[in-house]
Amino acid sequence: MPETPAPSKTVLEVIAPDNSRSVVPVAESPFMIGRGGDTGNHLQLIDRRISRHCASISTQEGRFILEDLGQRWGIFVNGEKIEKRALGDGDIITFGLADSYQIIFHESGSDTSIQDILSRIGTATGVDSGSGGLGKLNLLLQATLLLHAQIPLDLLLGTMLDHAIALTQADRGLLVEMDSSETFRVRVARSTGSVQLAPESLAPSQTALRLALKQQSSVITEDLAQADFGLQAAHSIVAQRLRSIVAIPLYAVARGSTLETAAHARRGDLLGVVYLDSRRPAAFSKLDRQILDALGVESAGILDNARLVERERERQRLEQQIQIARDIQQALLPHGFRDFPHLEAAGINYPCLTVGGDYFDVFPVSDELTAFVIADVSGKGLGAALLTTMLQGAFSGMTIGVDPARIITRVNCYLCEHSEVGRYATLFFGTLSSTGELEFINAGHPSPLLLRRDGIAEPFTEGSFPVGLVPSAEYTAYHEKLQPGDTLILFSDGVTEAMDPNEELFGIERLRDALTDQRNTPLEVVQKAVLDSVEQFTRGATQADDITLFLLRYRGAAQGAAV
What would the pLDDT profile of 41-63 be if each residue is shown by its tens digit? Predict the structure, then answer.
């Protein structure tokens, strides 16, 4: 089905299992959802239990239709299992898994919050209908329209405080946040006339703030002389000679909640407190109090949405930086191996994340000697990638006459001396001479297989600790004689530990089976046979680790001289 544009302001708020959030615009119809990005999905979910093509959203007659495309555990909207259903603003999509993704559908052009506010205030009895009341309604409407304004967050919050100050005729207004140590911090501060104040110079009433949080509702005190004694006697109130205070706690509420339901919705995370005070007594009408309640709901919505947008922008910036790191890492890996005397090579790497911790290379030491290495850094992501790059530099600096054991020992000492790095690496390093003499060191890496004319051998079981793990580790080189046509099969544990949907491991025996009858085939064919076997075994399960396959074939002295 050809893709057609969908309304650009319709978005999906994606809540990952770790509670991180991102926003994805629904810009195509059909909009495909599933695991992995190599299958044409517009929204890619990293959970091996989710099908590669699990759901789609398409536009039909102006409505957005969600359809289950075969998710094993089912597709649910607001807890109800569906096959096909029209989506409404605020609908929550899940995948039949308690610890997986949640997706909240936000339809473009939804101004229901404004209508709810005006409807509630307009139908209330005893509302002031004079010009003052209309002016205050206008202030509220202007504040609400900021929900759609594309302006920086602090500027938006400052403008919201200006509206609150104008509404209450307060002397100053603050947006107060609470940090991880439960200490209040002023983020934005304004006074009458839209004058910006220095947040660090202000001291809001801690008593009023904590009272608002304790009762999870607004504290609106028109005259502190008539207030509770504890509030009257608060040190900051006495010191600043305050007479009226408003403290409105802002909580995230369930998506799609209206003003009518927000007050009764489950309280989410505390977003902040709108705090207003004055040295004059205030007189709030019923309309004023309703508008203050509405302003609290709208302020919470603005703050929640603005933070969500900022997190999405930060995520995009981070993704861009990670993509640059991936490009650099891939450029450092060998591509299109040159012809080496006596040796033929092929290799491939599939990181499970954007950047990976696997590394392989082959390089000449002299006319008669060629060196090679495969390494797997603990962990994944940027940290592993950085250590991988360091290993590349260490091995690329090898020169004639350097003892391999000394190289590995030095790398181990360096990593152990910098324990704050918190990483180690397994590796298999070897040198192969023109006469077939293989000298190797195995530092905790999976033992390579040796594909010979008479079968598959595993002669490389001798080894030591990974580098960067044990400061006193000793590394000894071992020897093996290769015959012309012998092929070394080197791999990372991402190959043998690849899992199928039932969490069974691929294992060494399946790898041996994939190599059967591959003794005389080109290395590219051997490589494809192994990768195809892994792919068929995993049956679309999420790749949990980097996969690296590195093949080396000894040509023999006579063939090497001919090449």
Answer: 889 888 888 888 899 999 888 88
Region 82-100: mean pLDDT is: 88
Architecture of domain 4-106 in this structure: Sandwich (2.60)
Region(s) of the chain under CATH 2.60.200.20: 4-106
User: Residues 300-347: pLDDT tens digits?
Assistant: 777 777 677 777 777 777 777 677 666 766 666 666 677 777 889 999
Closest by CA to 477, choosing from 539, 404, 536, 541, is 404
Residue 35 corresponds to which tokens in the numbers above? 């695991």
Query: What burial letters (b/e) apply to 481-511, b meaning 16+ CB within 10 Å?
Result: ebeeebbbbbbbbbbbebbeeeeeebeeebb
CATH domain 333-562 topology: Phosphatase 2c; domain 1 (3.60.40)
Could you give the CA distance from residue 67 to residue 27 in angstroms, rounded to a whole number? 17
Q: What is the largest CA-CA distance in the chain?
A: 104
Tokens describing residue 71: 């998710």
Q: How many helices (H) and strands (E) does the chain have?
A: 14, 29
- Provide CATH 3.60.40.10 ranges for the chain: 333-562
Q: What is the pTM of this model?
A: 0.51
Q: Residue range 502-512: average pLDDT?
A: 92
The boundaries of every CATH 3.30.450.40 domain in the chain are 112-312
555 vs 238, residue with greater confidence = 555
Q: Which fold has domain 112-312?
A: Beta-Lactamase (3.30.450)
